[in-house]
Amino acid sequence: MEKVLVLLLLAFAVAYAVPDPRGIIINLEEGELCLNSAQCRSKCCHRDTGLSLARCAPKARESSECSAFTLYGVYYKCPCERGLTCEVDKTIVGSITNTNFGVCLDAGRSRK
Questions:
Q1: Fold classification of 26-106 (topology level)
Q2: What whole-number distance in Å separates Cα of residue 25 and Cα of residue 29?
Q3: Burial class of 42 by CB neighbour count within 10 A (0 to 12, 13 to 18, 19+)
Q4: In the prediction, which pLDDT does 70 show?
Q5: Domain ranges in the chain?
Q6: Any idea what DSSP says for residue 101?
Q7: What are 56's strand-pairing partners?
Q8: Buried residues in 45-60 as b, exposed as e (16+ CB within 10 A)
Q9: Band of residue 14 on the pLDDT scale cut at 50, 70, 90
């Protein structure tokens, strides 16, 4: 009887230890508060203004505004989805202020 009880407790301990796929600090869903894009499932931590709270958001689609990759990890415009490139004219001031915005274009199409 004691062996069954120990096995049952061990089974509950293992089941309880399995992590939730959603996450509290990483693997966040769209709309949840974030501090860095690495926390988000979509890999985009977006804020509207410098004083607003950043939230996870979907990546930019084709022909929509985007930001080039930044070391800050928080974007005013999300980077492009996979397979697209953000065509942007980078400036030093834009790099410092995180305002280098462009447009998502298909990487497979020739640039004209």
A1: Lipase, subunit A (2.10.80)
A2: 11
A3: middle
A4: 83
A5: 26-106
A6: E
A7: 45
A8: bbbeeeeeebbbbebb
A9: very low
pLDDT at 15: 43
Distance CA 71, CA 23 (A): 23
Give residue 108's pLDDT. Answer: 80
d(Cα 14, Cα 42) in Å, to the nearest integer? Answer: 30
Q: How far is CA 112 from CA 70, 98, 105, in A?
A: 26, 27, 12
pLDDT digits (tens, 9 = 90+) for 66-93: 998 888 899 999 999 999 999 998 888 8
Handedness of CA 38, 41, 42, 48 (dihedral sign): negative
